Amino acid sequence: MLRYYLLLPFILSCLPTTVYGLANDTNTTTIECDENGCKGTYYGSEFINGSDVAHQFSNTMSHKVGDKLKEYYNKGLYTKVDFASIKMTTLGMGSGMVTHKLLIPFISVTEPCDAFTSFDHVGDWNHAPLLAIRKKELSNVLLPDDELHISDLKTTPEGLQEYWIQWRNKATQANCK
């Protein structure tokens, strides 16, 4: 009987394995935020039905960061994203399953009009993001004579390229004209 137990790992290693890319099957997303910033992880399929779900995690994170910046501003905690300290990883890209991690740190500012309360990104895999188009799309959300603040291009070894963008929300920070 003991010899069968010794062979079990070998037998199991010979069985075929299949990874399924079904939404809510093996895909998980977690995001946590506090006064220091937001961090999160997407683990799952790169693509589902032709849709780039791994990169969509950047959309989810951007939305959450923008919500937190507004929340803190409304509590009198004036913050903005520390572009230089943003961290991105996309381990496993190209294998069918990816672990996409983002760390978006905040820094405190003393003046309300030095804070930013909106956050977004533009990115793509293996080629430069369409920054000019994104800037034009966001031009109508700015306060008069205000500008977008854009990070340097951030790139993972697997080829994800992102620009991160922040600005004063014209509803939340209307007094900053």
From TrEMBL:
<protein>
    <submittedName>
        <fullName>Uncharacterized protein</fullName>
    </submittedName>
</protein>
<keyword id="KW-0732">Signal</keyword>
<feature type="signal peptide">
    <location>
        <begin position="1"/>
        <end position="21"/>
    </location>
</feature>
